[in-house]
Amino acid sequence: MIDPARALAGAMAPRPTADAAHAVRSGLLIGAAGRLGEALLERLAARGPIHVAVTAPFTSTFGNVVPWSMSAEAATETTALPPVDDLWCVTGGAPGFHRRDAAYRAFDRAEAVALARAAHRAGVRRVVSIAPLAALHQLNADGLGLADLDEARIVAMGFEAAVFVRPTPDEVRTRAGTWPERLAQWWLGTLAHYLTPRALAPMDSATAARAIVEATAPLLRGDHVIGASRLQAALGHSGSRASIRR
pTM here? Predict the structure, then answer.
């Protein structure tokens, strides 16, 4: 559970203005590999300079991208991080077929707490964790809360804001395998498309990245959980529901 004292403090804190919410903030993105990670990197770079964690020499095709060298080994509390405003972490990204994103450092949820402690030591003000969650688990928006004790520990660290984003994964686009496996995934994905409520429908990576940036922009204070329906709402889609914990 989120600490009631922090929740009350967050609720009483002055709300950021529209200008503040869209002000240029520095950031570090870990987990830029894969369609969603790369789309998020492009979206963040369009708003201002963004560091991206890499494990090898790297030259970005996007402007405003600053490589930040990190070991591929699991992060510890002493891992060196840049003094940025925001730490963005994307779970589940994997290098694409052409491996143009092979230099990006992956993010492992098992290192989330240690990485958050390192970020807190570096002066990071906000943590944004993005972990796709199947629509089946988001049918009850009121039950969408912290996923585990690790997220609760991150909240307890006292960042100005901790934001946990749960987009619906686009199964057809993100999975790979042999052609029979891909055919089966396509069939299951098509079936899921017709069974999934519109408010929880998966988005393509570029749309999801835009929704994530828009939905999180004003969340500079307090602790929040954003489900797929809130991402749909950020783009002005109808039939959406939001779940935010403060």
Answer: 0.75
d(CA 51, CA 23): 17
Rounded (5°) CA angle 130-63-35: 35
d(CA 115, CA 101): 22
CA dihedral (62, 230, 145, 140) in degrees, to 10, reads: -140
| Residue pair 126/119 in contact by the 8 Å Cβ criterion | no
- The tens digit of pLDDT for each residue in 101-116 reads 788 999 999 999 999 9
Q: What is the rounded distance in angstroms from the CA atom of residue 219 to the CA atom of residue 100?
A: 32
Cα(66)–Cα(88) distance, rounded to whole angstroms?
Answer: 14
> Which two structure tokens, joined as six digits, stand for 187?
């069939």
Q: Which residues of 120-142 are buried (b: 16+ CB within 10 A; e: fewer)?
A: beeebbbbbbbbbbbbeebeebe
Of the candidates 101, 113, 24, the residue with the CA atom closest to the CA atom of residue 55: 101
197 membership: H or E segment, kind and range: none
Q: Tokens 């934001």 map to which residue?
A: 163
CA–chain centroid gap for 198, Å, is: 21
Q: For residues 179 and 118, what is the distance between their CA atoms, to the nearest angstrom?
A: 42
Tens digits of residue pLDDT in 146-171: 888 999 999 999 999 999 999 887 64
Residue 124's identity, in one-letter code, is V
In a 13 Å sphere around the CA of 187, the CA atoms on its Cβ side amount to 6
